[in-house]
Amino acid sequence: MKKLLYIFVFSALLSIVGCMREPELHLYEPQTIEHNFPVVDLDLEVYWDYEMIFDVQYDWKAEWFYGWDAGDIDMFGELGYTQPSVFNLRRYFTQDIPYAPHTTVIASPPFRGTHFQDRFEWGFWDILVWNEVRTIDGVQSLIFDEQTSLDSVTAYTNQSMYRSRYNAPLYTHAFWAPEPLFAAYERAIDINRNLDGFVYDPARNVFVRTLDMTMYPITYIYLTQVILHNNRGRIAQTEGNSVLSGMARSTTLNTGTAGVDPISVYFNNNLKKDCPLVPYDTPEDDPSRIIAEHADIIGGRLMTFGMCGQTPRKIDEGTSQMTDKYKHYLDVTVQFNNGMDSTIVFDVTQQVRKRYKGGVITVELDVDTVPIPQRSGGSGFDAVVKDFEDGGTYEFDM
């Protein structure tokens, strides 16, 4: 008779625990059930840990002036990542061969909480975990491909109704932004009869084995803001739509590597008027809010799979280099106080590459230099670098 193992898989730390018993080895988690382990520290200050220069760390709050109030939460959701609570798990048994190609998959139904229990045969296992996507309205953009290959799971989205004007050669429309997605993948987990790698816990009379299996975000948050200096009501409102181009259409959950098809990502924006240009965490009663320059700001938040072909975690570790080759354009459609509208396009390539796993993207525009357009879809900008062929969209240097 084959011996089998009961294993608990933690969302942040995959823990394998067992008490010696025949004919089966029953496994339990080493920590008490009251201990909740985070998927990853989801504080943006921790995750956006870019080193600027000479040990100076990136301070996104110092750059973010748009803010994020209750109205923004109602329109767009939370500013940062939120902790997932339901997870999907796929197990691949490779028998006596570690790192072997997958020939079968055991798909478990979504489970809630911090652990997962099931039976494992003696041998080598690969385990993939990702969060279940849950949305307020029950409609999700993410689609998961588990059929093309048993060796990987791919996540992608489809095209929206919003037109893509540039830098997405294979597609005519911008794509929906993905929902927050986290994943962890561990290979060649050796469950053997000798209990190699297990440690005895005398307090509980069990053998414990812990595998590091931290879940990382594989969709990345960008906070965009177009600061309208000296606007004085000339740009009256926005259409509410924005696009960021040159981003990846998909990602591989096992590796966190983005796909190679460049697309434009659709997201929403909002115009706030008379915003003090002070850091995001400035208290409401701070006098600097009164004396600081005030400006209208078009702000937005989008989620992406990142840049094509990039693996941000490997860039962090120094095992991969930035190889992005696509331009990244940010566009907003605004309406002027004479009722005419214009789509304005900004080159934000360097900012996106610098913030390869998300961050703040800022455009500063002096509206005093912007003539009001006299035709809908036109542009009143003089400093035009390139006039796109659709006749109403322009690119501007930063």
Q: Which ranges are low-confidence, i.e. pLDDT below 50, for 5 or more consecutive residues?
A: 1-38, 378-398
* Strand runs, count: 26
For the largest beta-sheet, the strand count, sense and barrel status come to: 11 strands, mixed
Which structural class should the secondary elements be placed in? mainly beta
Could you give the distance between the termini? 70 Å
Strand content: 35-45%
Mean pLDDT: 79
Computed over alpha carbons, the radius of gyration is: 25 Å
Tally of alpha and pi helices: 6
What this model shows, in words?
The structure is a single chain. The protein is mainly beta. The chain contains six helices and 26 strands. A hairpin with an 8-residue loop joins strand 9 (143-145) and strand 10. The longest helix has 7 residues, at 70-76. Mean pLDDT is 79; it is low at 1-38 and 378-398.
